[in-house]
Amino acid sequence: MGQLEVMTAMNGSPILTQMPKVGQSLDRRTARDLIADKLMVLIATNMLRPGDVLPGERELANVLHVSRETVRGAIQTLSARGIVEVSQGSRTRVCNVDLSHLTVTIASPNAIDSYDLDDVHAARLHIELKVVGDAADRIDEETLGKLKSLLEAQKLCGDDAMRFLICDREFHIGIYRACGNPLLCDFVTDLYTYMMDHRRSAMSRPGAIDASYDDHTEIVEALERRDRDAVVGAFRQHLTRIYDTTKELLGVTGQPKREKSKSRTKT
Questions:
Q1: Residues in contact with 254: Cβ distance below 8 Å, sequence separation at least 6, in sequence order
Q2: Residue 81 DSSP symbol
């Protein structure tokens, strides 16, 4: 299955929504700037790694509902800043740059990754399950349609962990947004980015994508029924799977915990 087919399958459900506050100043910024910022977030969170080839202009334009000229302008902006490199044949590769300082919603990936794995997992269970439970009560047919579209797109990703995670991000954030509380959505979106480079490695393991897809299917079916308890249960299972595979990959069993990150709350 070609890249175009994978990306086109997500038509009507943009993969790059809920990025860093870019929507708040659309009236003062160009579409080119917006798309450039969205691509930078994928790089900052290690969904796109140095050396990765970006989808083509047509593919990105179809997914983002903008013109190819807008996508081309965004890529030119990133190229001028040394973030991507456009080679012969118009193949665009991610350069070896560090964007981990970039704020995704509230915090930067560096800030989130400084926390202990167990603490992040506990926070996700505490906050995210509340968020998805509220989403079960509030979700509308349009959002359900987009989630189903993303399930279809995930089928087409094969064993491509990068493309699956792009779908996965949109899937999760689509549900978070349905809770109706933008601040809680931002909190859990930041938690979602935790150790994304390791998540991509974990998703590259045999069977990982299939297991995650099955979890997503169960979540959507529960959302369709507006069954709050079932949604929370399916998400708990999904988050536990993420925790277990990340812990296994890091080899942290029996490993001393990191020094606790100090609270950043100001009094």
A1: none
A2: T
Distance between CA atoms of residues 229 and 144, nearest Å: 18
Does any domain span residue 13? no
Percent of the chain with pLDDT over 90: 42
* 242: CB partners within 8 A, 6+ apart: 199
**208-229 residue pLDDT tens:** 999 999 999 999 999 999 999 9
Dihedral sign for Cα 144, 147, 153, 155, please: negative
pLDDT digits (tens, 9 = 90+) for 45-82: 777 888 888 877 876 776 565 689 998 999 999 999 99
The residue to which tokens 């790694």 are assigned: 49
Place of tokens 């050396």: 51
3-state secondary structure (DSSP) of residue 169: helix
Domain total of the chain: 2
* pLDDT tens figures, 96-106: 887 777 766 67
What's the rounded Cα separation, in Å, for the pair 132 and 139?
10
Residues 172 and 77 reside in one and the same domain: no
- Could you list the residue range(s) of the whole structural domain that residue 28 is in? 19-94
CATH for 117:
1.20.120.530
**What are the tokens at 245?**
């595979």
- DSSP letters, 170-219, are HHHHHHHHTTS-HHHHHHHHHHHTTTHHHHHHHHTSTTHHHHHHHHHHHH
Using DSSP's 3-state secondary structure scheme, residue 115 falls into coil
DSSP letters, 30-54, are -HHHHHHHHHHHHHHTTSS-TTPBP
Distance CA 259, CA 40 (A): 30
Cα–Cα distance measured from residue 143 to residue 72, given in angstroms and rounded to the nearest whole number: 29
Matching residue, tokens 């974990």: 202
